[in-house]
């Protein structure tokens, strides 16, 4: 407890105590009655009373450096768990996993994955003048913007856009209609003229 307080890690233990609650669901009946948040992980190489010292603290988990578990290091797939390394464990990492200059001793044939990029600041690389000069100008979108679909049978302009000859057909139909209307008006006028005034 004194060590955790010195490392400002006892706040995590208090947080774990506060978050302990009953599990919702049937897990309560299956020996998983309580759930709580995770506390710090202590990684050690030599057990000089480390396991006995930390065994009863809520949320504090222990892991041997040669048996590291990814589910403990990054629970839920989230990086950034608070891990306390002992000096012996940290010095033993090079022996287990090796370095870029020296191969691993314990893991036979294991090499540390090298970074594909020497500079990981992608935003700065893309926006640099050298890259921007080599790039082509931004292409315009090939797809036409969305047009509201109109009914060509009711909308003459839409019909002419689909069939340009429709303009001539419509004009001819209007001329024929006007001619018929004029002929009918003339015929009606003649008939009315033929009827005597008394019968009107």
Automatic annotation (TrEMBL):
UniProt-listed InterPro entries: Ribos_uL4_C_dom, Ribosomal_uL4, Ribosomal_uL4_dom_sf, Ribosomal_uL4_euk/arch
Q: Which UniProt keywords apply?
A: Ribonucleoprotein, Ribosomal protein
Which GO cellular component terms are attached? ribonucleoprotein complex; ribosome
Is the keyword NAD assigned to this protein? no
**GO MF annotations for this entry?**
structural constituent of ribosome
Which positions fall inside the Large ribosomal subunit protein uL4 C-terminal domain? 109-181
User: Is rRNA-binding one of the keywords UniProt gives this record?
Assistant: no
Q: Name one GO biological process term.
A: translation
The family annotation for this protein states: Belongs to the universal ribosomal protein uL4 family.
Protein name (record): Ribosomal protein L4
Q: Which organism is it from?
A: Collodictyon triciliatum
């Amino acid at each position: 407890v004194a060590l955790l307080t010195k490392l400002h890690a006892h706040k995590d233990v208090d947080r774990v105590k506060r978050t302990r609650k009953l599990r919702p669901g049937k897990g309560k009946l299956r020996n998983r009655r309580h759930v709580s948040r995770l506390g710090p992980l202590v990684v050690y190489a030599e057990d000089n009373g480390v396991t006995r010292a930390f065994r009863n603290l809520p949320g504090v988990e222990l892991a041997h450096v040669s048996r590291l578990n990814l589910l403990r290091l990054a629970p839920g797939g989230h990086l950034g768990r608070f891990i306390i390394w002992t000096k012996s464990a940290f010095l033993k990492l090079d022996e287990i996993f090796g370095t870029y200059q020296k191969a691993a001793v314990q893991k036979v044939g294991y090499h540390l994955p090298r970074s594909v990029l020497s500079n990981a600041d992608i935003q700065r690389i893309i926006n640099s003048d050298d890259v921007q000069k080599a790039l082509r100008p931004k292409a315009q979108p090939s797809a036409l913007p969305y047009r509201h679909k109109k009914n060509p049978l009711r909308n003459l302009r839409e019909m002419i856009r689909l069939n340009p000859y429709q303009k001539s057909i419509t004009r001819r139909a209007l001329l024929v209609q006007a001619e018929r209307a004029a002929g009918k008006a003339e015929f009606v006028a003649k008939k009315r003229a033929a009827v005597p005034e008394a019968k009107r």
